[in-house]
Amino acid sequence: MKRFFVFFTVPLMLLLGMVSCSNEDLPDSQSQPEPDENGYCLLFYASGGDPEHDLSEMNSITQAAQATAGRQDIAITALFKASGKSEGEAHNGVRRYIGEDGQLIQDTDFAPSDDFSIIDPARLTDFIRWSAQQYPDRKYLLVFAGHGLEFIPYLDIPAVKTRSTLSDGDDMMSSYHLAQGIRDAGIPLEAMIAHSCLQGSIEMLAEWEGLADYLLGSPFSIPDFAYDYASLLEDLSEGRTVEDALIRTAHRTMNLWQEFHDNQSTGTVVEVSHLKELTPLWDVLQETITLMRSTLQEKNTHSTDLPAVWGETYKKGYQKAFKAMYQHNEDNFFDNFRADYAIDLPDFLRNACLYSGNVQLVPYLNRLHEVLEDVLVCHLQSDGLHNHIYNVCTGYLMNPKELATYRTCRFDQLTGWSKLHEDLLGTKQE
């Protein structure tokens, strides 16, 4: 028999105070509830990173545990590694929990080694399998929480350079290794929830394809609290589909945090994407990029509409589109807090058509728009636009070493993005 230590839950008013909006503010389900006798389990895989986030992440876990009170069809599990950057139990150690019947219960039989590495994909695999043992035959949603970073090719040691999901001190877990940990567990996931910043690049989407049905995250900075997991669990318990529950969670985030302040800038982006089958997306991107590369030296003889310039090569128009995407307004949240040297890929391709006047791209871009409507379940941007959907890496690709490394990532192999980038911007000489 395992020994567990029961944590006293925080007052209910704290939970109620964090709920961002009423049900009337949220999109209603158009589908029938999913019948499921065994219910759902929400898995938290979290690294505090610093004393402040030790507390904020544990608060999210505690609130989610509270939501299970009186509900046998929802439960949580959690593996939490504190930052070790302050005194006391809240900031030191690695602990494992279950959450059921409103209580957060520590597994006192869990005895991690002193060198326990939460960024090791094997630890994630073990946690997912353990969670499935505690709550078998449920539908599982994985939350990975910690400090996220953008897709930066040169930071990783292995060949696949996809950093960013969460940090453990100065070390970081790459999106590639996150995928490895999930895949090796062999437990189907309904959803992945990125409780860390900058988890919206197109490269990550390629790494995580097929690991879950859905991804909830943001390509920008997110608030410490991020998502209302208590309400998410209640939605699932009340019979809403996973898709509906995630959409409602995204809307709650936007309703509450649209005035989210970070260094005097305000703004929020949150989105839900399909992850199951993305072949149509990779196909249309590859075909669009191939057409752009094959028409670099052709001249614009089809459009007099600015910003296209009659008689200029399409290559020059594509280059101008790149330059326009790099404009930086320090007072603009979306300029300041996007990933370094990243641009929104769908928006760039649209601008490439407008700046070059290459109307051959029009049917490809319209097909891309249709595919994105299927991939994007929900995209919310606090300025009302849709020009920050999927970031793509750019600036680092001008270094030959990083370029060679980038070409090992799945997204580039599927689409040939770096070849177009090199055609337009070249590479720096050593």
From TrEMBL:
The keyword Signal applies. Keywords: Signal. Residues 1-23 form the signal peptide. InterPro entries: Peptidase_C11. PROSITE patterns: PROKAR_LIPOPROTEIN (PS51257). Gene3D superfamilies: 3.40.50.11970. This is Clostripain family. It comes from Parabacteroides distasonis.
